# Entry
Amino acid sequence: MKKSEITFSITLDHNNIPETLSWQATDSPEGAAPQQVRTVAISIWDHLSQGTMKIDLWTKEMEVPDMKRFVIDSIGGLGESLKTATGDQLMHQQIMALCDSLMDHVKKEGKSA
# Structure
């Protein structure tokens, strides 16, 4: 059985705000450097408590428009995962419609800025 581990590295400032975020997987190409990112969002389903445990971190450099696009893309990715896992086309379509509506909002904001 193959085993892989993903490691996140977070550097915090004196107020415990992330300054740098990076990740690396054990099955990355040999010698690959950790990947620097500006945000990390991890959701884990706890079947015992029937709830989601979440870790959301972002650096000071994460810009508001990028955060909005990241959230929309994450929602869309969850919609794709839902469709793959359950075959529920209705929920998938509604999630994608929400993402389209939110992207229209972000685009309009960008034009008025």
Notes: The first strand starts at residue 6 and ends at 12. The CA atoms of residues 82 and 88 lie 7 Å apart.
